[in-house]
Design brief:
DNA-binding, globular, six-stranded mixed sheet, 158 residues, single chain, alpha+beta
DNA sequence: GCCAACGTTGGC
DNA sequence: GCCAACGTTGGC
């Protein structure tokens, strides 16, 4: 019997890498590079193939969830940490002892309309989401199955 | 652009 | 190990 599917929220700045950018990639799939926070990294290392992701646009005019993605490859070293020319270079991460990791995600479904942060805050069932907690800034965080499905249903009933 | 809330760094 | 200084995130 396979393990239960898990659910996540991943943030990306749309001017850097948007949901449409993911869709436009070969096979609508890309690696999730650049996570440089230990807690977010640890969550990412728990991700399993088939887990579903809420794709969140952050640090933009209207932050919110724009659609869903699926984990297609589990944790492996983030090679951008080894590249001195990368914005994500970290000399303390070595190929023989990597500090940072990534997963691959595949674009899955665009919502009919964005579920904005404001709208999520107004939704009682989403009140306990980590995203709502003051001061939390993780770019990768778990959500419950119920939260995932609530956000998706809001996004698909626009 | 502002700034609250973190996380990280490094001197001691 | 403490903690001040600094850097980053991300909503507003």
């Amino acid at each position: 019997m396979s393990r239960a599917k898990q659910f996540w929220l991943m943030k990306s700045e749309p001017t850097v890498f948007s949901f449409d950018d993911l869709k436009a990639r070969h096979l609508s799939t890309d690696h999730w590079e650049g996570v440089r926070n230990y807690q977010a990294r640890n969550y990412m290392r728990q991700m399993k193939k088939g887990d579903l992701v809420l794709f969140y646009h952050s640090n933009c005019e209207t932050p919110g969830v724009v659609g869903t993605a699926e984990v297609t490859r589990e944790t492996y070293p983030d090679h951008t940490a080894f590249d001195p020319l990368s914005n994500y270079y970290d000399p303390k991460s070595k190929p023989d002892n990597p500090r940072w990791f990534m997963v691959d995600v595949k674009w899955k479904e665009a919502f009919l309309g964005m579920v904005t942060l404001t709208e999520m805050r107004r939704t009682p069932e989403l009140g306990r989401m980590k995203l709502m907690q003051k001061g939390q800034r993780l770019s990768v965080m778990p959500v419950t199955k119920e939260e995932f499905e609530k956000v998706r249903s809001l996004g698909m009933t626009k």
